[in-house]
Amino acid sequence: MSVFSFKVVKELGQARLGELHTPCGTIDTPAFVPVGTQATVKAVSIDDLQKLKIQVVLANTYHLYLRPGVETIECLGGLHKMMNWNGPMMTDSGGYQVFSLGWAIEHGVGKVVNFLADDSREEEELKRQITVKTKSIIPRQKLCVVDDEKATFISHVDGSLHVWTPEKSIEIQGKLGADLIFAMDECTSPIHDSDYTRNSMYRTHLWEERSLVKFRKLHNKFQEIYGVVQGGPFEDLRIESAKFVADNHFFGNGIGGAMVTKSKMLEVLDWIMSILPADRPSHLLGIGGIDDILNTVGYGIDTYDCAFPTRLARRGGLLMLPEDGGKLLNRWTLNVVREEFKNDNSPLSQNCECELCSGGYSKGYLHHLYWAKELLIFRLTTIHNLYVMEKLMSEIREGIAENKLEKVKRKWLG
Amino acid sequence: MSVFSFKVVKELGQARLGELHTPCGTIDTPAFVPVGTQATVKAVSIDDLQKLKIQVVLANTYHLYLRPGVETIECLGGLHKMMNWNGPMMTDSGGYQVFSLGWAIEHGVGKVVNFLADDSREEEELKRQITVKTKSIIPRQKLCVVDDEKATFISHVDGSLHVWTPEKSIEIQGKLGADLIFAMDECTSPIHDSDYTRNSMYRTHLWEERSLVKFRKLHNKFQEIYGVVQGGPFEDLRIESAKFVADNHFFGNGIGGAMVTKSKMLEVLDWIMSILPADRPSHLLGIGGIDDILNTVGYGIDTYDCAFPTRLARRGGLLMLPEDGGKLLNRWTLNVVREEFKNDNSPLSQNCECELCSGGYSKGYLHHLYWAKELLIFRLTTIHNLYVMEKLMSEIREGIAENKLEKVKRKWLG
Questions:
Q1: How confident is the model at residue B191 (pLDDT cuts 50, 70, 90)?
Q2: Maximum Cα–Cα distance for chain A, whole Å?
Q3: Quick count: other Cβ atoms within 10 Å of Cβ B278?
Q4: A323 Cβ partners below 8 Å, 6+ apart?
């Protein structure tokens, strides 16, 4: 019997409460997965993560492959032991870096959903703006080129050349030793047309098949693998890709790639979630905005990873609970960097129980720490933002359990 | 009755065990005082400091005056409340910045004892080398000029001009609200000759008298003031300055300034400690190397402040306990930055109980965090180094209490 299993405990519409069992523990889903790119969730310790009741973290295979390197991680006992994290862990495949170090760096774009705050502008207008933006950016040398066989990277650490194949990604992820790993894909850019996206999707399917073959060969019973649906914002491609993932023997469904707008993301989920096997856990790659989670949990998404709450924290952005005025309109964010908080001796929140809020640190002191470039602020704000994310997820789980998910959504969206 | 008092509990030769009572608590002496320049001990939280049993911290008046500014600190409830530290606190006078932003910046020198590891080279040779070094450095615009009335600073934060007087220093320190403050002095440079040092010392005495007058006028019973002995490496000047401090009604004796070599520092203490009133606490300003503390505690020094252990930590330097091989010869330092630790999966210490060592983090992981520029390392290494400093001080106190100080010195010096 496999040490891995996924059990849907309760359904409410398509939303579901689940238990994702791994050798390192059980993840109660829906769950948010903080990102620990380089084998550390930036600015916080494992002790901090445990106090925050973080259930699972995601590390980036390509980054760790470059630094400190697979051999070193093996010497240090694998990823879990090296970073002292004994809970469940995910690694990605390096496929996102194919995009972020390739097309993204060359054209100065992100995964569009991440930099678009709302959908009030029409999609075509957005595309136009992206194109304008793209053309106004001085082209930079991209660090990755792709063909059907492989991705070829120039290391952003030391300029060395690296060839990345699906087999290599799976082999490295095997050595890193995370519980849940991903098949290698190519993440497409929002500026790609349907032709490029279609060809890329077929390449992704080839890569995923090779990933799966390699994975099965390794016979590692302490690891399970997710497939990844690609296909950009195109309905026919998404459906085809979802069928591909469904038809192959993956443990979990990953949903990746560019979706152009937040409303397009919901459309994509509409197209694919009924195709993907419901008895597998579904992971939405790189998505974790508060509204994104609230709006997609009803489609049956079980886990989310995103650097947003921890990155926001390091820029002085503090997530606000609904009790403290957090809502869609203000993006749940209070930015202590702003001048208005300089002399503000009030605490951030009376409702939050994190180390920052219960410690009695004032907004004015945080403002000072930010501008004085003091290291303390990064940890305190990261702890706070992760606390808010965990609070969100526990309220969502409670909402599903107690048939009041809509109430939770209303409360948070404001 | 004053809420401040200093009680010598036990003497062993000139070394003494003391209790320094302040309104915010009692400091068991000898004690090490971590530096929190900008109202935070870099990289650690108040919770961390409390777990480390840190008794007292020192903040820098001039830095806080520039940023966030006195008005803001008052709005935020004073220094204690602003930074959430309810234990004893010291502030310096800004006198050290007269040196560090003036002569030091112009001539590229430090307080020599801080950059000379040993006294194996002769003093004259050292002076020659300093002069050579000084002349080879491209002169930089100094940010402070001094006359008998005042020090005039150009802010290193925004280039604005600030006039600093003894009265202003005391007034600002009053508003910051630390328990123990310092009279304003001019810290001289190791390259100053006896003429400059003599004139500077008289200026310091004038400034200290003015500091004292201003301090008494403020009638702040929640604050006490230290005088500061200056006079460089010159015997006649040091004796004259010690007499000045002794003859004036200061609560504590501060010992400041350049002493050129570590052995000269001991000579200076030989000259002055019998002159300074023994019923006052004595503070050695800016000194806190492990050997410096071990070698001066026998002269009757009660408290030490120094940025060294926390700064070393941020550069990847980890202090080693004697049990782990720490000794004078290796400066008690293991530097995880070095290549040899890349694949080292052993913990730093089996004997240290700090969060880093008890948490199971390996030297190889710390090496990775350092080179990956990950924020986590700064906090872990700072916690460790402060733990070692506290361990040193508690063993010194135990050594005095149990008449075995020499044994403690032998153990640590190796």
A1: confident
A2: 62
A3: 13
A4: A349, A351
Q: How many residues does chain B have?
A: 414
Q: What is the DSSP annotation of B159-178? A: --EEEE-HHHHHHHHHHHT-
CA-nearest residue to A79 within chain B is: B365
Contact between B248 and B178 under an 8 Å Cβ cutoff? The reply is: no
> Which ranges of A142-261 does DSSP label H, i.e. alpha helix?
166-176, 194-218, 235-247
Q: How far apart are CA A260 and CA A129, in angstroms?
A: 12
Which runs of consecutive H residues, i.e. helices, occur in B317-375? 355-358, 363-371
Q: Where are the beta strands (DSSP E) in B231-314?
A: 252-255, 282-284, 303-306
pLDDT at B126: 55
Kindly report which listed range (A152-156, A211-215, A345-349) carries the lowest average pLDDT score.
A152-156
Q: Which tops the pLDDT comparison, B141 or A13?
A: A13
Sorted by where each starts, the structural domains of chain A and their CATH numbers stand as 32-278 (3.20.20.105), 312-413 (no CATH)
Q: Where are the beta strands (DSSP E) in A314-373?
A: 317-319, 333-335
Inter-chain CB proximity B68 and A355 less than 8 Å = no
Taking the C-alpha atoms of residue B82 and residue B86, their distance in angstroms, rounded to an integer, is 10
Q: Which residues of A fall within a CB distance of 8 Å from B45?
A: 355, 359, 376, 379-380
Nearest CA in chain B to A78: B345
Q: How far is A141 from chain B (nearest CA, A)?
A: 23
Is B67 close to A368, i.e. CB distance below 8 A? yes
Q: In residues, how long is chain A?
A: 414
Q: Do residues B367 and B336 make contact, with C-beta atoms less than 8 angstroms apart?
A: yes
pLDDT for B143: 82
Tell whether the torsion through CA atoms of A367, A368, A374 and A377 is positive or negative: negative
Comparing C-alpha atoms, which of B265, B223, B234 is closest to residue B93?
A: B223
Q: Note if the pTM is more than 0.90.
A: yes
Give the model confidence (pLDDT) of A46-85 as tens digits.
999 999 999 999 999 999 999 999 999 999 999 999 999 9
B199 touches chain A (CB under 8 A): no
Name every residue whose Cβ is closer than 8 Å to that of residue A230 and which is 6 or more positions away in sequence: A185, A186, A187, A188, A197, A200, A201, A204, A237, A241, A256, A257
Residue of A nearest to B44 (CA): A376
Distance CA A152, CA A162 (A): 6
Tokens of B28: 């068991």
**pLDDT above 70 (res B247):** yes
The secondary structure of residue B35, as a DSSP letter, is B
| Cross-chain Cβ contact A376/B42 below 8 Å | yes
Find the radius of gyration of the CA atoms of chain B: 21
Residue B49 near chain A (CB below 8 Å): no
Count interface pairs A-B at CB distance under 8 A.
128
Query: Cis ω on the peptide bond leading into residue A30 (within 30° of 0)?
Result: yes
Q: What is the C-alpha to C-alpha distance for residues A87 and A93, in angstroms, rounded to an integer?
A: 20
Determine the residue of chain B that is closest to A378 in CA distance.
Answer: B375
pLDDT tier at A114, thresholds 50, 70, 90: very low
The shortest CB-CB distance from A68 to any of B68, B71, B342 is to B342
Q: In this structure, are strands B25-29 and B333-335 parallel, antiparallel, or unpaired? A: unpaired
The per-residue pLDDT for B342 is: 97
Question: What letter would DSSP give residue A7?
Answer: E
Asked whether the beta carbons of A255 and A269 are under 8 A apart, the reply is yes
Contacts of B82 in chain A (CB under 8 A): 345, 362, 364-365, 368
Chain A contact probe: residue of B376, B378, B382, B384 with most A CBs at under 10 A: B376
pLDDT at A410: 98
A376 touching B, CB under 8 A?
A: yes
User: What are the pLDDT digits (tens) for B363-375?
Assistant: 999 999 999 999 9
